[in-house]
Specification:
By secondary structure, the protein is mainly beta. Helix content is 3%, strand content 36%. It is built from 2 helices and 24 strands. β1 and β2 form a beta hairpin. The radius of gyration is 21 Å and the shape is globular.
Length: 390
């Protein structure tokens, strides 16, 4: 690991990801084109520009906002370099030295998606679709968006290098709306904010650091070698290290995603005030739940409302209180309740959010028993198998 860089906290304002506009739209159909490319972005005031890979030249990528039952077509365009800038282990399955390094494929995480558009890890493709993986089927993906209103996200899914491509910046929000959500009168517009939380480590020049081998037991390992899991030592929200957000004394809705490769987050406000959870990965809960803190594993989402109406003049820090958190990964971001209320807060905080259709166990036709096995590969590294199979 490089020496930890001490970065001053709460000096950069929280960025809000751009909303993606379709190239074409008709009644219930929209068509998007999204390009994956390399670029540089300032992640902290005191860091040099960081080399990244991202969608539409930003990290996080722009946010999709679509309606329930709206058919969305997306042409994902790979404009990435041929060579990766992070260390690739060519000894793991699907990442052999014969494969192109600049390959990518996109997965809509949590989406109910046709198989041809699911972003299978082996459906990867390179720039201009010159090379494609064995399961590649089509250039334009179809998303029917048949889910309830919910918070999804899209990210790279490439066999053998997903961890590297997502770490490089290939991730963004995908929000599905419906008329029921609109009827709930929740905080919206500038009072509804997505928060994509990740951990990253940096070299002194501001470039991303990713380990090329595990910290210990590395005798006889190939180089570079996979290092699972990897928890980095700096927290970013929406592409900024320890940002701040100026808020009014009113209710805000936050859609929070843990997009870290492996880090577990346990989040709470240092003011000890309660949060109201209204949704999870699959959409709204039936009733709101009062929380003082909550856990987010990697890739999990939570939909919460925070009421700042009693906090005018205060500064509140969102903390990560997971036991494994270091001093550098304890503070996440800062809320400054310093903006005077622009207008009366007429948004609602409903107790009942609507019914959830459940699948009764009696519908099951078959029971399958699957074993989860942790073994070791030829180099002694951890290998997780399903029913003993790769």
């Amino acid at each position: 690991m490089p020496e930890k860089i001490k970065l001053q906290k709460f000096v950069d304002e929280l960025p809000i990801p751009n909303m993606l506009s379709p190239k074409k739209r008709s009644y219930n159909i929209s068509y998007y084109e999204v390009t994956m490319e390399e670029f540089s972005q300032k992640l902290h005031r005191d860091l040099g520009p960081t080399r990244l890979w991202g969608y539409e030249g930003t990290f996080p990528g722009p946010t999709f906002e679509v309606m329930n039952n709206e058919t969305v077509f997306v042409k994902w365009i790979n404009n990435l370099p041929n060579k990766h800038f992070l260390p690739i282990d060519t000894t793991i399955h699907g990442s052999e030295i014969t494969l192109p390094e600049g390959r990518s494929v996109v997965h809509l995480h949590g989406g109910r998606t046709p198989s041809h558009s699911d972003g299978y890890p082996e459906a990867w493709f390179t720039r201009n679709f010159e090379q494609t993986g064995p399961l590649f089927e089509r250039k334009i993906y179809t998303y029917p968006n048949i889910e309830r209103a919910t918070t999804l996200w899209y990210h790279d899914h490439t066999m053998g290098i997903t961890r590297l491509n997502v770490y490089a910046g290939l991730a963004g929000f995908y929000l599905i709306r419906d008329f029921h959500e609109q009827s709930l009168n929740l905080p919206k517009g500038k009072y509804e904010i997505p928060l994509l939380i990740v951990d990253r480590s940096f070299n002194p020049d501001g470039s991303l650091y990713y380990p090329s081998k595990p910290d210990q037991n590395d005798i006889g390992l190939p180089h570079p070698s996979l290092a699972p899991p990897f928890d980095a030592y700096t927290i970013l929200v929406n592409g900024k290290v320890y940002p701040f957000l100026d808020v009014e004394p009113r209710k805000y809705r936050f859609r929070i995603l843990n997009a870290s490769n492996s880090r577990i987050l346990t989040l709470k406000m240092d003011s000890n005030q309660s949060l109201y959870q209204i949704g999870t990965d699959g959409g709204f809960l039936e009733t709101r739940v009062l929380l003082n803190e909550f856990i987010l594993m990697s890739a999990e989402r939570i939909d919460v409302i925070i009421d700042f109406s009693q906090n005018y003049g205060q500064t509140i820090i969102l903390k990560n209180v997971t036991k494994s958190a270091s001093p550098e990964t304890t503070d996440v971001m800062q809320f400054r309740v310093t903006v005077p209320l622009k207008s009366t807060d007429t948004s609602s905080l409903p107790f009942y959010l609507g019914p959830i259709k459940r699948l009764p166990r009696s519908m099951a036709k078959r029971t399958r028993d699957l074993t989860l096995v942790r073994t070791k590969d030829q180099y002694g590294r951890s290998l997780n198998l399903l029913d003993g199979k790769m």
